[in-house]
Amino acid sequence: MEVLVREDRVSIYLGELEGRVGSNQDELSRLETRIKQLEKQNSYLAEKVEDAENRSRASNIRLLHVPEGSEGRDMIGFVGQLFIKLFGQDKLTSPLVIERAHRSPGTPNPNPKTAPRPILVRFLHFQDKLNILRLSRNKKELLFKGNRVHIYPDFSAGLMEKRRLFTTVKKKLRDLDIECDMQYPATLRVHVEGKKLFFRSPDEAEIFIRDFSQQSP
């Protein structure tokens, strides 16, 4: 009789244990679902924040490789004159209205081999930014005091990294004499055989390059 009672107790205990395990598994499953929901929500919010940041920079450009100290004490005046030197007064059909201009934060490095801090420029009119970028694209080399100056849109660090991922495929396309450019926010536009193709990831572009190379004589 005592053995049967013990077996009954063991059976009850095992039943309760299985119930708790099942309950824990259900709770774990609910938690995993909730975590996935939160991760998705966090990703969505991060994208919204990044988009808002980039929209706030819509009228900004970034100047690279302008020697430190060239600006003197009047950065806005210096940048206005720099554009005239780079592109010529005749290319600037209307006065540029610059709201702000400054070096990116940080301490200047006296080592001449160290790249100077970028200059961030904000225009009052969005169209002025577009005109400067267009002039920069059309002129293959921009020189100032023997330095090759580069002009780019001013994007957030996250978006710059997304666009940077296309660097290799853009080089491959240009080696094939295929025109390409980046569209906002991070889409590669390719001009080939009278058509415009759009790639949202470098992998998509790599597949196109492979197929195009195989078809070419």
TrEMBL record:
A Gene Ontology BP annotation from the UniProt entry: retrotransposition
Species the sequence originates in: Oryzias latipes
A single Gene Ontology CC term: ribonucleoprotein complex
Keywords carried by this UniProt record: Coiled coil
GO MF terms, alphabetically ordered: single-stranded RNA binding
InterPro entries: Transposase_22
Coiled-coil positions: 21-55
Descriptive protein name: L1 transposable element RRM domain-containing protein
